[in-house]
Amino acid sequence: xxxHTPKKMPDTYFAHQSAIIDTGAQIGxxxxxxxxxxxxTGAQIGxNCSLGQNVFVGGKTVIGNNVKIQNNVSVYDSVTLEDYxxxxxxxxxxxxxxxxTEYPKGRENFLHTIVKKGATIGANVTIVCGHTxxxxxxxxxGSVVTKDIPDYALVxxxxxxxxxxxxxxxxxxxxxxxxxxxxxxxxxxxxxxxxKVSLL
Length: 200
Fold this sequence. Notes:
The protein is mostly beta strands. The chain contains no helices and 26 strands. The protein has a single domain (6-170), classed as Hexapeptide repeat proteins (UDP N-Acetylglucosamine Acyltransferase, domain 1, 3 Solenoid). The strands form five sheets. Strands 1-2-5-8-11-14-17-20-22-23 form a ten-stranded mixed sheet, with no helix packed on it. It has a six-stranded parallel sheet with strand order 4-7-10-13-16-19, with no helix packed on it. The model is unreliable at 1-8 (pLDDT under 50).
């Protein structure tokens, strides 16, 4: 039986021997890249990230620090993941709003998707390109995102709609009449005003 063991390449990050890492990819210290991943030339990946089995990272992709990408996720060109983003298993990014094989377009026409710090994207979510996912937003499994998602928003459905608000810890918050809510986990105070949540 053929078995694979993790190998260190180079000394600053770990990559499984089945991973393909093209020359020119930038990978930060402490990052782990597991079975059958492909990291393209020009990709920028920060420190202490974890890329699960069968992850693809495009050459014009920027991934911050402490990002966790679960199995079977492709992070295509023109996608930016800020620090502490979580991408659930088999979720999908896109970058072309109207693809046609008969009329291909250059990469300069791809739409940029930004996932801000601390956001969570659940399993099997689809992100339609050209949108921004706000910081610490939480997208429920199986959702389809077709527009920008505000900071701290809890969204789910097809299309994804705001169903509530969550704290930095991902805890659902209940706002009082004055628009203030504490995080149930740490008691940080948040304010809801004009359909936007901010940390006080």
